[in-house]
Write a structure and sequence with these properties.
binds S-adenosyl-L-homocysteine; binds iron/sulfur cluster; globular; 4 domains; Transcription Regulator spoIIAA; binds FE3-S4 cluster; 439 residues; 21 strands; 23% strand
Amino acid sequence: MNKGRTYHITTFGCQMNEHDSEALAGMLEELGFSESPERNSADVAIINTCSVRENADKRFFGTLGQLKKIKKENPDFTVCVCGCMMQQQHIIDSIKTKYPWVDLIFGTHNIHQFPQLLQNVMAEREKLVKVWEDGGEIVEGLPTKRLYKHKAFVNIMYGCNNFCTYCIVPYTRGRERSRKPEDILEEVRRLVRDGVREVTLLGQNVNSYQGDENTDFADLIYMLNEVEGLLRIRFMTSHPKDLSDKLIQAYRDCQKLCNYIHLPVQSGSRRILARMNRRYTKEDYLELIGKLRQAVPQITISTDIIVGFPGETEEDFEETLDLVRTVRYDSAFTFLYSIRKGTPAAQYADQIPEDVKHHRFNRLVETVNSISAEKNAAYEGRVEQVLVEGTSKTDSNTCSGRTEGFKLINFPGNSEMAGKLIDVKVTAGKTFSLEGEVL
Ligand code: SAH
Ligand code: SF4
Ligand code: F3S
């Protein structure tokens, strides 16, 4: 069945989407398809979309536009679109009217139906739109084709209940649902048997994980720390409003939990944070950073920041710069505020002009980068434990990997080092990465 047929997946967005694409690939391989390096020559093309900012929407429509010609030349070419954008009716409507060469539309809640939907579309040669509005029961046991050999993403929960006023995710991913701890443990043990050494636990707000009445997020970390053969545990993303003391303690007790945290702050202004519905103040956030650093002095910290949220004044923005200089992040993802249809902030009257947003954005990036460069330069001469990912695509004598603190490091090496945890001496610290040599 389907022998000789090929697929190609394009993924936009976060790790959640990357992981969904791994499941789509797994299901396709079970159906007998194999992966094609080229989208244009594949039998089935899938685009897994993101809706978090306008840019992501635009890139999707651009990609979709390019497929028209291929479909014209080869009517059997099957175009499937899925992911967060498909959870919005206005997007589905515009695909139907402006991009009629799309064959199958499905959403984030019914990924498990994909094999069935695809087979229907291919057999009947009819278009199909199937999107669920809400997440049903969690479906366990989907096959996955992993992107990396030695590290893996593991979903521990789905959805988000926080409704930050700028954000589309609660609308595209539904309400919070946690997987059972035993299902997660079983998956991690299976991954380890398959060669995985590092897992990244995924959730929009892992701090509100509740697997059962006795298992919160910190408990889950303690349980995973016992899995034999697993070397490292990471997680993404945690919301400052409910990061518990118990989790901070877990950093001290659980040797496998990496000394790294991604803790999105979004803004340094109390007023803007309130309008964003983040439910913490600058002071709360700084207190949390203080506690983390006291418990784990070597912890590395990264964040997300939005510039130009409606109503942001120069003073508010200065508060953000001040926070960045106080915390001194190892790295930060910075975003221009983007209006998302259907979210509360889209209705706010005091939107910030584009030129003001860009000007602030550039100032912020400069501040963030110069701190990153200083922090990385301070690593020169230190010895770091690195999980080797493999050799570089362009140079088989250069390896890359991540330090415990999630810094990218390049060093001379060979393919046999992949998957190993080795000591590397840092020889240079640059803005976005380190260079080193194996000891
Ligand atoms: N659940 C995660 C974030 C998911 S979205 C959390 O709460 O931390 C990733 C990042 O995209 C957010 O942290 C935010 O900084 C950014 N983002 C989300 N919506 C945005 C918007 N409308 N405009 C600009 N940036 C946005
Ligand atoms: Fe979006 Fe806020 Fe939920 Fe993160 S916590 S996904 S920013 S609503
Ligand atoms: Fe992720 Fe984008 Fe959806 S950031 S959750 S793929 S909107």
